[in-house]
Amino acid sequence: MDEMGEEAPNPAPEFSLTAPTDVVCDACVGRKRKAEQACLECLASYCEPHLELHNSLHGGKRHKLVEATERLQAKTCPEHGKLLEVFCRTDQRCICYLCITDTHRTHDVIAIEVEVAEKKIQLDTLHRKTSERIQTREKAEEDLRQAVVAFKTSTEEAVVKNDRLFSELITCMEKMQRVVKDLILAQKEAVIKEAEELIEGVQENISGLKRRDAELQHLKQLSQEHNNIHFLQSAYSISPLKKIIRPPVLLLHPYCSFQPTTDAISELLKKLNLICQWRFITISERVKNTGIISSPLPRTRQELLQYATKLTLDPNTLHDNIRLSANDTLLTAVRESEYYLTHAEKFERRQQALCKEGLRGSPRYWEVKCGTRGAWVSIAISYKGIRKSGKQAPLFGRCPSSWALRNYGVSCEFWHDNKKTDVRSSSICSRIGVYVDHGAGVLAFYNVSDSTRLIHKVQTKFSEPVYAGFGLAGIGSQIQLCDLDSQD
């Protein structure tokens, strides 16, 4: 007997379940058959025989039938046994209409179809964004893989070139060693030959002098024998009118050994060692700064302060219309010249100044206060060799060898190679931080007046050490180096 009180028909093979995903008939007892349709009123699914029985029993009532796609229990409210047709956004769950008047009375509810439609839109948007992110990540992965391959290739090429260049250097030094050795041996042969010839001449001179001495000794003997006639006749043979043997002129050379040569080679070795040590530092820094992934730019002032460096203004570079004060940290544009001593590094045309420290290698960071008086101030970095005199002497940023942020207060301009980039700031830039990663070629300016906000970032390539520089315009314009140790 089935749940309707009727004897269930014998199961036919064609009604047997054929897949685990099929919906089973709720009316079948024992062996379940595949359900064909479901009744939303009875909340049950029926196979074809039981569906005919259901329709005959409820023929007068219009029960809504749908395709049997899943168990209706999953669509039924466990509290009221009604179909779940409403979605509660407050609790994020499906409910029936009776739940609205019960536990979900004050909640935000909406028809399931509406929520499904919105969720589908959200799902499509999320799917699109996810796909875009996947594509971005896949491209980043591919770029990274290509970078790794290129980096490996570059490494192999660098090792080969390194070996070749050092071999050439060693060969050059060995050639110089042979040349110096040949010079020393050739000089030895020439000097010894000359000395031996001189010795031979000296020996001949000594022999002549000894013969003359013997003659003089003989005359001296004759003078003691009181035979004046014989003495005078003998003395006539050695009179001054005859040829006199003159000794060769011998002067001792101040460098009678190769010690000065050895000293010169030793001095060369010391200089080469110094050059090698200095260059090795440069080489080491460049090796360390070679990579695939660069470090992220600091975002907070605390991160920036890890790279804080102390700078010192170079008085030899000061323009005459800049006054240096406040423990040599404050620059002020003045009307009357200060008349500093003339120096090769002095800015003669532009009201500018440089610091003493050459910056290279690891990241560096410093801050400056900008005075409110005057037209503008320039915060810059520059190569030491920037032109400082003559009509062609540029402002910072107006040449390839300098980079400058010109601050007008609220607005800023960035200049490099005489090209301007307008920069907007949401507040007055009274205190500006400068971050330089020489190895990575990164220059960044921050507004640190009240909070830390990036003003402008530049990606470039530095070919030599850079120096912090400052420019002033307008009487009273000021820039002051901040002491980060005191956290003023």
Structure write-up:
This protein has six helices and 19 strands. By secondary structure, it is of the alpha+beta class. 35% of the residues lie in helices and 19% in strands. It has a seven-stranded antiparallel β-sheet with strand order 7-8-19-10-15-16-17, with no helix packed on it. A six-stranded antiparallel β-sheet has the order 9-18-11-12-13-14, with no helix packed on it. A three-stranded antiparallel β-sheet has the order 2-1-3. It starts with 36 loop residues before the first strand and ends in a 7-residue tail after the last strand. The relative contact order is 0.06. It has helices spanning 48-57, 97-100, 112-223, 228-236, 259-288, 301-305; strands at residues 37-39, 44-46, 65-67, 86-88, 93-95, 109-111, 322-325, 330-333, 352-354, 364-370, 376-382, 402-407, 411-416, 419-424, 431-437, 442-447, 453-459, 467-473, 478-481.
Task: Write the topology of this structure.
Blueprint: E1 37-39, E2 44-46, H1 48-57, E3 65-67, E4 86-88, E5 93-95, H2 97-100, E6 109-111, H3 112-223, H4 228-236, H5 259-288, H6 301-305, E7 322-325, E8 330-333, E9 352-354, E10 364-370, E11 376-382, E12 402-407, E13 411-416, E14 419-424, E15 431-437, E16 442-447, E17 453-459, E18 467-473, E19 478-481
Antiparallel strand pairs: 1-2, 1-3, 4-5, 4-6, 7-8, 8-19, 9-18, 10-15, 10-19, 11-12, 11-18, 12-13, 13-14, 15-16, 16-17
Which outline best applies?
A: elongated
Q: Name the helicity range.
A: 25-40%
Report the structural category.
Answer: alpha+beta
Oligomer: single chain
* Widest sheet, order of strands: 7-8-19-10-15-16-17
Give the rounded overall mean pLDDT: 84
**SSE ordering:** EEHEEEHEHHHHEEEEEEEEEEEEE
Tally of DSSP helical segments: 6
> Termini, distance in Å?
93 Å
Gyration radius, in Å: 51 Å
Strand segment count = 19
Poorly predicted runs of 5 or more residues:
1-16
The proportion of residues in beta strands is: 15-25%
Note the main sheet: 7 strands, antiparallel
